[in-house]
Amino acid sequence: GQQLNQSPQSMFIQEGEDVSMNCTSSSIFNTWLWYKQDPGEGPVLLIALYKAGELTSNGRLTAQFGITRKDSFLNISASIPSDVGIYFCAGRPLGGSQGNLIFGKGTKLSVKP
Amino acid sequence: DAMVIQNPRYQVTQFGKPVTLSCSQTLNHNVMYWYQQKSSQAPKLLFHYYDKDFNNEADTPDNFQSRRPNTSFCFLDIRSPGLGDAAMYLCATSKPGGPVVTQYFGPGTRLTVL
Predict the structure, then answer these.
(1) Model pLDDT for residues B3-43, shown as the tens digit of each residue
(2) Are A98 and B33 inside 8 Å of each other by CB?
(3) Using 50, 70 and 90 to split pLDDT, how confident is the model at B100?
(4) Which chain A residues are closer than 8 Å to B50 by Cβ?
(5) Alpha-carbon span A70 to A90, nearest angstrom
(6) Contacts of A42 in chain B (CB under 8 A)
(7) If you average pLDDT over every residue of chain B, what do you get?
(8) From the list B40, B100, B104, which residue is nearest A45 (CB)?
(9) Cβ contacts of A29 within 8 Å, gap of 6 or more
(10) Shortest CA gap A82–chain B (Å)
């Protein structure tokens, strides 16, 4: 089946540093979503992207829908300890069915105060 | 606040003893999903309802069933839980007509099988 390649798998950074993670696919996607999941909780939607080239911000978070429609990135600026968690990208392939949301394997972010 | 609610948050059951997890939503969304998530893995879709239309994923075991008695509620029934069914179970919703695939998740139910 279709897969998303999310990288890096994990990151250990110092508080205040910027963070960048990305997802790539082998096929065209028409939607990209970025979620954050804290331990023992459900994923929380951070940013949703629906058009190629779209650049959207949510506070210190910025995400972009790649022009090729096969990738997306998420940047976090000036990281703080509460940014710790697992970040998942998810996307809907072009022509995908209603329930067909493909998830990346996640990026585990650790922030040292 | 409109939200997706899951009960209980933690469920312990015995091997082979049926268990039901519940999900309710105040978002009035047409679509409801059930995912299984094991440690350090991405959520895996089990099935979803589009209104009353049930859609099962091809690799979802027969041991897993679902009911949606009305728009607001959806249940996940595990008929004979095995040790391998211990996981976090996530409910999510979405609303067609807009960005249909944007899914909103509940807090999850952590299932332990003894």
Answers:
(1) 999 999 999 999 999 999 999 999 999 999 999 999 889 99
(2) no
(3) low
(4) 98
(5) 12
(6) 4, 6, 90, 92, 105-108
(7) 92
(8) B104
(9) A69, A70, A72, A91, A92, A93, A94, A102
(10) 18
